[in-house]
Amino acid sequence: MRPPVENIRVSQRARDILIKLKRKTDIEHWNVLCRWAFCASLSNPTKPVPLTSSPDSNIDMTWKVFAGSLSECLPAMLLVRAMQDGVSSDKEGLAAYFRNHLERGISYMQNVDGLDDLFDLETTEKRRCPKL
Prior knowledge:
Elements: E1 7-9, H1 12-25, H2 30-42, E2 60-62, H3 63-67, H4 73-85, H5 91-108, H6 115-128
Antiparallel strand pairs: 1-2
Helix pairs in contact: 2-5
């Protein structure tokens, strides 16, 4: 399956959260934190709010770097979720929907103070939300 975007950029606000997360969790790569954020957002059954901010930070990565070994799985998960939420499955619709999920997931992580909090966030989301 094709990725929803080729290059991924985040907002300046998301960049600031990711910088703090790198420091507090000792996770050194943006892509790991962004993947975690994306999955955290997908686990929330509500539709993410469309963003009004632009991807204006200097964090820029390819889909291959973002997704890693999950490069085939993540677009499929996004497409299934988009269909559940009634989101257009065209390239532009999926790209915007992906970015909404990524930014929402990063915002979920803004109060994380360490790896324990990150694991707690995932556990809480799994308990609160049904599986896709």
